[in-house]
Each structure stands twice: as C-alpha cells, then as structure tokens.
Design a protein that fits this description.
about 160 residues, 8-stranded mixed sheet, two-stranded antiparallel sheet, 3 helices, globular
Length: about 160
Amino acid sequence: MTRMNGRRLLLNGAHLGYDVLRATLQPIGIGVRGLLVHDDAALLVYHSYVPYWHLPGGGLKRGETLEAAARREVYEEAGAVVTGPLALLGIFLGNTRQRSDHTAVFACEAFVLQPPIDRWEIDGRAFFALDRLPDNVTRGYRRLIARWRDGDRSLQIGTW
C-alpha cells in the first residue's frame, strides 16, 4: 500500500489542488467518519492519495444528516452496510491546509461487508486489532480507537 506509482502521484497532486480550492471556497467543512468494529478489530481504509490508514468517511451532501452521511460513506469507501445503530462518539476539529474541518465520528459493531463502490479513492481495506494498529494511523484516530478499546463510549468534543 505504500507504493508511489504514477497513479498515486497523479491522485496526490489532484488531491492537493482540491484541498487548496476547497480552502478558498469553503474554509470550514463538515464531515463524518465511521469506527467499524468487529471481533476487537477496526476496519480501516487506505486512500490512493495519502500514505495513511483512515476511518472510512467523507463529506456531507446537501440536505443529508450526519448519520445518513456516515452510513453512505462507510458503504462507499469500505463496502460496509450498517445493520444496527450508529453511536455518536464525538465531534472533532481538525485544522489542515488552511481549512477548519469539523468531523462527527460514529461507531458501529453491526454491519456486513460487500465490495466497496469507491474504486479510485480507496486502495484497500483491512481489519486491524484495536491494540495493534499499523504505524501509519494518525494520533487522533489512535486516541479514538484506544478510547473505544478501553470501554469509553462517552461523547467527546474537541480536537484530533
């Protein structure tokens, strides 16, 4: 997943341009992420344009609720069809590339996997034990997953 081929280089450049445009036109964003847990393992996705494993997620569409966006995004990126309730774990602020993004993170343990429909943005998906995450997972995701692993389901509002 760490190869830097022509496709990855092109997508990385396109993503950077997209981020610059978004920061100019929409300096504050709202997004969602899903912590999908099965057998003490979290389902993470690997993006084609950045060298990190992520919780599946993305932005809201016009008129979409946070929960509906979370259900749609985990399906699109990870192929996870949520079959049970989603629990709101927190709302987090991240400041990157001149943007302020607020991200609502939902957790779910009831889902079934199908092939993901996102074929260009996501290079892979995999389960990782909650106590053995890959090295290239952000500190914010690590803290969130550790909270879940340790049984802390309280709502948190803060920064990544």
